[in-house]
TrEMBL record:
Annotated region described as Disordered, given as residue ranges: 48-83
Organism this protein belongs to: Acidithrix ferrooxidans
Claim: Phosphoprotein is one of the keywords in the record: yes
Gene behind this protein: fhaB
Protein name: FHA domain-containing protein FhaB
Alphabetical list of Gene3D superfamilies matching this protein: 2.60.200.20
């Protein structure tokens, strides 16, 4: 084989190795940026859990509020301005939970999510999100493997919801009330 051709193969191999390393560095960079964006979204919403005592239903009520002042440490009680509530139920486990949706609400297995799926193996760590825009409640799947279903149909884009719609994620289900 001519020496010139061997030199050409050598330079092509070196270029391919550099392209591989650049691709790995880019993948790490994208992952770091995605985690930073998720942390920013998490800090933009705050929540507090209120237990409702007595009664026959024994339901827990969770109020989700958007932090408009930018102070991350302030907790405040507010009325649901949007008028949207979601009834959350794990498949045969525990009691129903009622959530007022006022700001960005994340749903997933992660403890940082507003609505935690617990140990549901079919849910992602940050599986989906819900928000209100112009008095319309939306849900969006965040690229999960097993998908988010609204009224038994898988969604791929943000979808507006109305009262009575059922959202299914793994073994957990929610209903807009």
């Amino acid at each position: 084989m001519p020496i010139g051709l061997l030199d050409l193969f050598k330079y092509v191999l070196i270029a391919l190795i550099w392209l591989f390393f650049l691709r790995v560095i880019r993948a790490v960079w994208v992952q770091i940026r995605t985690n930073d964006l998720q942390r920013k979204e998490k800090s933009q919403s705050e929540f507090e859990v209120l237990s409702q005592g007595g009664g026959e239903t024994n339901q827990a009520k969770k109020t989700v509020t958007s932090s408009s002042s930018g102070r991350s440490g302030s907790k405040r009680r507010s009325q649901a301005k949007s008028g949207f509530q979601v009834k959350f139920k794990r498949d045969g486990v525990g009691e129903d939970l009622i959530f007022d949706i006022n700001g960005l609400t994340t749903i997933g297995r992660s403890s940082g999510c507003t609505i935690s799926l617990g140990d549901d193996e079919f849910g992602s760590s940050v599986h989906a999100r819900m928000w209100v825009d112009n008095d319309v409640l939306y849900v969006e799947d965040l690229g999960s493997t097993n998908g988010t279903f609204v009224n038994s149909g898988r969604i791929n884009t943000p979808r507006p919801l109305s009262k009575g719609d059922r959202i299914s994620i793994g073994h957990s289900s929610m209903e807009v009330i």
